[in-house]
TrEMBL record:
Coiled coil: none
InterPro entries assigned to the protein according to its UniProt record, in alphabetical order: UbiA_prenyltransferase, UbiA_sf, UBIAD1
Localization per Swiss-Prot or TrEMBL: Membrane
Sorted UniProt keywords: Cell membrane, Membrane, Menaquinone biosynthesis, Transferase, Transmembrane, Transmembrane helix
Name of the protein in question: Prenyltransferase
Any single Pfam family the record assigns to this protein: UbiA
Membrane topology: Multi-pass membrane protein
Main location class: membrane
CDD domains reported for this sequence: PT_UbiA_UBIAD1
Species of provenance: Nannocystis punicea
Pathway: Quinol/quinone metabolism; menaquinone biosynthesis
Source domain of life: Bacteria
Residues spanning the membrane: 42-59, 97-114, 120-138, 150-168, 174-193, 226-258, 278-303
Amino acid sequence: MFDPAAWLQASRPLAQVNLVVPLWLGQALAFAHTGAFRLPTLYASQMFVALLLLVIVFSNDYADRDTDAANTTYNEFSGGSRVLPEGRLRPGELRDAAWLALIGLAALSLWLALGAGRPWAPAFVAGAALLVWIYNFPPLRLSYRGGGEIVQGLGTGVLLPLFGFYVQAGSLAAFPWLALAPLFLLGVVGNFLTSLPDVPSDRSSGKRSYAVRRGQWAARRHSLELLVMAALMGGLVVPGLGAAGVALLAAPALVLVARSVPLLGSADAEQRDECRRFILLVAGAGHLQCVLWSLALVVVGFLRP
């Protein structure tokens, strides 16, 4: 019997923010550098990331079903949607739903290519599908072999900003390529954070996440270091932003980082409340930084001659 509540749980709506924020930033970059912005294109791009999220979360749940079943330290940011361990859906249903979402994503990209004059849109779908496969499935399966953080950095920190820019501007000719450096770092940080609660089950199942390979304390410390580095690279994202502007836009995120420092030594997966608080603070800092950059880019766009 079809269970709408189970499918809503499987779709993990909270995870949408991880895709929407870099997508919006890419479109803000397009507005700042070219003046291009169309509301229908924004709607189409939102549908794009909604379908992409379904491909990602359904695939992740299917690929991680054994590890998630043994996970007792998960929270709302990790450990999958829990529909498989709870018996609310079957693995084959999620596998088929992932394929269906991918077909929908491909169809949308063809509409963008043929109906909206964005011929390279299907290439972004192919790139996203390749990253999902590399992350989750053999022969590479980097989320288990090690290197999943690089894949997530490429997905959320490179592919999505490029797609957001492309669908609005119609070309990548004016894209500020150095802006991808801090965005990639923030994508890597996102992977570090979501792996933290899962360390015990990941270790027992042989999943070599960054936190398993380097240790939980090191993963927390490195997430803060990379986030600070990214925040201080705001001049690569917002054109004409001087040192004072970089500091001003970085300050709110750095405040959240500072609040997370006391948790560095104690927020292990087994300390579920502290681990959750650390993730909330640091992930919130990363998303806030991207939103502030996006708002600054919109201002730059309005001030264009």
